Amino acid sequence: AVAIGVLLVVIVPVVYAVLGGFRTTGQISADPIGLPRPWVFDNYREILGSSTFWRQLRNSVLVAAVTMAVVVPCASLAAFALARFEFAGREAVYALFTVGLLFPLTVAVLPLFITLRTADLLNNPLGVALPQAAFALPVSIIVLRPFFRNIPAELEEAAAMDGCGPFRFFYKIALPMSRPVLATVTVLAIVASSNAFLLPLVVLNDPDMWTLPLGATNFSTQYSSDTARVLAFTSLSMVPALVFYVIAERQIVSGLASGALKG
Questions:
Q1: What is the number of alpha carbons within 13 Å of residue 262 lying toward its C-beta?
Q2: In sequence order, what are the residues at sequence separation of 6 or more whose Cβ sits closer than 8 angstroms to the Cβ of residue 37?
Q3: For residues 72 and 97, what is the distance between their CA atoms, to the nearest angstrom?
Q4: Cα gap 148→259, rounded to integer Å
Q5: Which of helix, strand or coil describes residue 170?
Q6: Which of 237, 236, 256, 259 is CA-nearest to residue 248?
Q7: 133-150 core/surface letters (b: 16 or more CB in 10 A; e: else)
Q8: pLDDT attached to residue 262
Q9: Closest to 246 (Cα-Cα) out of 14, 9, 50
Q10: Which of 66, 77, 139, 140 lies 20 to 30 angstroms, CA to CA, from 49?
Q11: What pLDDT, in 10s, does the model give residues 195-244?
């Protein structure tokens, strides 16, 4: 019953937005919770035919791809070192990453803005992707480290007897074994990047560089009187992250079960 209740809370607004895009604003005003009668496809057709939507989608995909390309290699290397190597201060370093989970982005906006301005990264996708990757590293390392720690020591010893050094063991054995948990980290980084709003709002002042969350906000302001069109744009802006999440959902569950939960 609790699960069904949570599902309804999550899915009802999404279904309402999608169906609302197939209606007119007049239909919504007359019957807010009714079904489309008749079905109106002009809202979605006009948005999909607009170059603005596709440009914002391209910007979102670019930022998400760069974020993923930074997070996955850096987090996997750091997690492997923290899991398999003994060195002074190892647990302190891991604790520092754990504390990073408690550090909100809102606290870092001002120093981040000054740093990015000094580095000439304002109105640049890297100015959004690199800080997002930095904020995604703590949770990625915490998810990956328990998985690497549970790789049997006998397997590493056998690999060492065959002449396999630590780095070769990492990319030849540990990485292939950790595909489910790497998929989890990848999906979490991409979905978080796709949904980010505050950092792109601060960094991207040029409308041509806006991502989908910024575009949706601007669209809802521009067409505030056209509720149906706003719902259509909002629904389309959710599609990329939702599709990617649904495709990789099994990998996410498998990765969390074999990685973080095991730890």
A1: 17
A2: 27
A3: 15
A4: 8
A5: helix
A6: 256
A7: bbbbbbbbbbbbbbbbbe
A8: 44
A9: 14
A10: 66
A11: 889 999 999 988 999 999 999 899 988 888 888 999 999 999 888 877 77
By C-alpha distance, which of 176, 158, 149 is closest to 82? 149
Residue of 174, 194, 185, 189 whose CA lies nearest to 237: 194
Q: What is the mean pLDDT of the chain?
A: 87
Distance CA 72, CA 182 (A): 7
Q: Cα 189 to the chain's mean position, in Å?
A: 4
To 10 degrees, the CA torsion angle through 99, 138, 83, 263? 80
| Helix axes 51-84 and 90-100, enclosed angle (nearest 10) | 150
Task: Name residue 54's amino acid.
Answer: W
For residue 256, the model assigns a pLDDT of 57
Q: What is the pLDDT of residues 61-98, one digit of tens each?
A: 999 999 999 999 999 999 999 998 888 888 999 999 98
3-class DSSP state for residue 167?
helix
Residue ranges in the chain assigned as alpha helix (H): 2-20, 25-30, 42-48, 51-84, 90-100, 105-118, 125-149, 153-161, 166-169, 175-177, 179-195, 198-203, 212-222, 227-258
Q: What does the pLDDT average to over 186-203?
A: 88
